[in-house]
Design brief:
Helix content: over 70%
Low-confidence stretches: none
Number of strands: 0
Distance between the termini: 33 Å
Oligomer: single chain
Order of helices and strands: HHHHHHHHHHHHHHHHHHHHHH
Shape: globular
Number of helices: 22
Mean pLDDT: 85
Strand content: under 5%
Amino acid sequence: MFKKVTRGSVKLMERYLPDAFIFAVILTIITFVAAIPATGQSPLDMVKHWGGGVWGLLPFTMQMMLVLVLGNALAISGPVKRLLKKIASLAHSPGQAILLVTFVSGIACWLNWGFGLIVGALLARELARAVPNVDYRLLIASAYSGFVVWHAGFSGSIPLQVNSDLTQLQTISEGLITELIPVSRTIFSTANLIVTIAIIVTLPFLNRAMHPDSENTVVVDPSALMDESEYKEPVDKTPAQKLENSPILSYVVVALAFTYLVYFFWSVKKVDLNLNIVNLIFLMLGVLLHGTPIRYVNAINESIRGAGGVLIQFPFYAGIMGMMTGKNPEGVSLAITITNFFLGISTTRTFPLFTFWSAGLVNIFVPSGGGQWAVQGPINMPAAIKLGVDPAVSAMAIAWGDAWTNMIQPFWALPALGIAGLQAKDIMGYCLMVLFYTGILVSLAFLFLF
């Protein structure tokens, strides 16, 4: 019965979910049409909001492209390929491959979301080479499914913000919060740890149960998976070629970066794995492990081919965010309207649950943790305090909602899809099942645990 439902979900997405770029365009149109009556603004106003926001994610777009390209270039270095092969050798059957990649991805995303996205996809690709008859679509979907816990972990932007910026927190809460909210009440709260562990431990078995039978399994030819292009050093080197093939140059820049990283972590007095630091680590490890500058250049050229989806789609999501957050003269936006609807039907008991659901809905249109907090934080936090709800619980409800619907939002899947060479519709049928499962678990947690 479960496999039948899964097959139906997969066929539904394959048939009706368009390319991720078309999905972004459709969301743009839906947001444009919905925001006009919801906020009382004119079509021209919405056009202005869209145009004003469309380039708002340029720095983040570059960061995400670097996550994809640098992570992949690192993975096709000799030492990392050998390490991935060793890990992949632990799986001897399709079921074991699904269990392994889901568990590793969940742990890695909880530690750091950027690191987890790439590690999961790279391990999945290696498992596809190592394990015969494993469904490649489910393998990549399983690698991505671990991302559902990212906002409850070490790199969760909302729990980190409420623990680091008191001025912003006081502004968002209308002065009702007078001190920072420590991670002991958010990331390391008993309720958050219980639901996170429950998902990381049980999700691998859900994914394994979705593996199709042999006649419906889609496998990939291992030789078709992207690998490091063959490079042969020239026998008679010109002075320029000697520089290109000199490991000394690589070692110098790696030493420079290592010195900076030591200084950075010493100065901030904590392990702050923000996206820029993760990318710097990926960059320098790639330079080091490829050995010579020209080998790394070849690896980057090979890896950049999968970055097109990020480049073309992120401006559209930035435009959607502009329309979602664009306010009328009374200060009302479409995102605020959605949030206020859920607040209007909330009680003290149901407030965290409805906050989670509303955050999940808003996340489909504003797939950014920081953007979502800017939209919902100023509404939810004062309301939570006035209702007698712990603001730490309200913050985590927004965080979990932001992470939850990523399972049907192709925005964050683009790096993994670029590495895998798949389209969103190839994996979203499986991710839809993950959405239902994790949605039930987290909803129950906000009713009975938080």
